[in-house]
Amino acid sequence: MLNTRHTLLMLCLTLLLGxxxxxxxxxxxxxxxxxxxIDETAEEAGDAMDDAADDVEESLDQ
Length: 62
Fold this sequence. Notes:
- This protein is 87% helix and 0% strand.
- It is mainly α.
């Protein structure tokens, strides 16, 4: 019985420590922020290209 309680206590402590370690990783570093900015800029450029292609297609249909 004591061994089961000890195992359960150790499991709970491990889970709590793991959750605490993951919570400490919220802050983004400068490389991650730059990567997100690059992704956002690329997506905006792709949207602009799609809009331009739609405008050209509409002008050719008229």
